[in-house]
């Protein structure tokens, strides 16, 4: 039986994995394919639902390849000085 979005988030919260959502992972990607808009670069698949939901439905555990995104800082101070 597929897990609905609401029950999935309840399970994720109880397993203290609420931060393990695809949109915060560096492997998450959005595709141009309307039938399969979400992708996971780490697992190498595309799907209709978020990859973390697919992984949980198939394995019963939260995604083990989750890697938080790092914020890209702006240009270095030296680069800004050279623009002036």
Give a short overview.
This protein is of the alpha+beta class and 84 residues long.
Structure description:
This protein has one domain. About 6% of the residues have low confidence. 31% of the residues lie in helices and 11% in strands. The chain has three helices and three strands, in the order αβββαα. A three-stranded antiparallel sheet has the order 1-2-3, with no helix packed on it. The termini are far apart. It has 84 residues and is α+β, with helices and mostly antiparallel strands.
How many domains comprise the coordinates? Answer: 1
Overall pLDDT: 77
**N-to-C terminal Cα separation, in Å?**
61 Å
Number of helices: 3
Q: N-to-C SSE series?
A: HEEEHH
Annotation, overall tally of beta strands: 3
- The rounded Rg comes to 17 Å
Q: Give the spatial strand order of the biggest sheet.
A: 1-2-3
Strand content: 5-15%
Helix content: 25-40%
Bulk shape: flat
Instruction: Please mark out the parts with pLDDT under 50 across 5 or more consecutive residues, or reply none.
Output: 14-18
Content-based structural category: alpha+beta
Main sheet record: 3 strands, antiparallel
Topology of this protein?
Layout: H1 5-14, E1 28-30, E2 38-40, E3 45-47, H2 51-59, H3 77-83
Antiparallel strand pairs: 1-2, 2-3
Keywords, separated by commas or semicolons:
31% helix; 84 residues; 3 strands; single chain; alpha+beta
């Amino acid at each position: 039986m597929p897990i609905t979005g609401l029950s999935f988030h309840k399970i994720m919260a109880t397993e203290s994995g609420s931060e393990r959502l695809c949109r915060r992972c560096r492997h998450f990607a959005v595709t141009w394919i309307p039938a399969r808009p979400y992708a996971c670069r780490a697992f190498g698949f595309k799907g209709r639902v978020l990859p973390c939901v697919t992984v949980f439905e198939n394995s019963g555990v939260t995604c083990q390849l989750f890697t938080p995104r790092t914020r890209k800082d702006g240009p270095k101070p030296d680069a800004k000085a050279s623009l002036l």
